[in-house]
Model the fold of this input.
Amino acid sequence: MLLAARSDWWNIARTCAGLALVPVAAGFLLVTMRQNQLPATSGAIAASVVFVFVVAVLSALRIPVSYTGFAWTFPVALIGMAYANLRLQRMKRGRVALLDHPGVGEARKVLGPAVPVITPDSPDAFDYDCVLIDPEAHHNPEWAQVMARFYMLGIEIAAWPKYAEGFLGRVAIEDFDLAHVAYTPTQIYYSKIKRAIDLAAVLVLAPVAVVVGALIWIYIRLIDGGPVFFVQLRRGYGGSVFRLYKFRTMRKGAGEAATQTDDARILPGCRILRQLRLDELPQLINIARGDMSWIGPRPVSVDIARKLERSVPQYINRQLVLPGLTGWAQVSHGYASNLDEERTKLEYDLYYVKNISFDLDLLILFKTVSTIMLRYKSK
Done:
């Protein structure tokens, strides 16, 4: 009995020692991939490695475990670590400075006071984690020695327009050029499988959506009668036109004017549907048909699209990707009530078009859920 007890304690000690290496291994993986442009993907990979490691250790030591429990907790850990690493990567920017040059005023206006301006003679010029340069002003022999010193000290050198784009999550309309939209192999691969992900998500959520949708259908019929669905022509991929479906949450004959705060046209009890975005459930049909994706620039009506395309010619570039149920502009800016705000939203949409990726879609998904849960930016 004593030997058996000692053996059990020895197994427990070995297991604890093995599991103690899990955070070390995960941390090492994430640190080695810290410069990776896909933090959510790297976080998911780290989570997968951790789980495989844990299962392997427990199996090798023949310790009874619930593999069903592992199967249930694995997706949660996968999403949790992906989200955590995504947030950490966005929060951890280090010390950044802007290298002085003749046109520094424009850069300061965009970057704001959070990024100080330095010269090579500044006392702390070589104490920063990243130095922003001007692509034209600093690319000449005069600055070669300074750049070499930054490089040898391990200081990251980045063009300030590119940094500003990632920092703000926007692409200036006048700077957007299709010639600069060069997708990486990862982006090309993701664009090919995104449609499959859309369909898989529709299939998974369809049973719940049908039940909830049926209840909403009955409720709208009971309180107001008339048509349950609101159908409108929207601008889609490549300039195509499609019928977008929503549950009608306004009174009959309410028109198509923009919704206002505390709009009296909203049916009793339907404000909560709008806040939780449940009125968008019928758009699963649009996603299944290929009119839309889960993530992408929000489709606008054909009339509004025509007006904006006349006012802002670059607006047409939103059509380079499928419109979505939610998008980067929606979670970063919210609704637009005038042309200036529409231009700002377009800058967010152009950023998405240029930087489309699984990680960005995942971030949009997380921010959308957060927005819905907080009932924020809803009209």
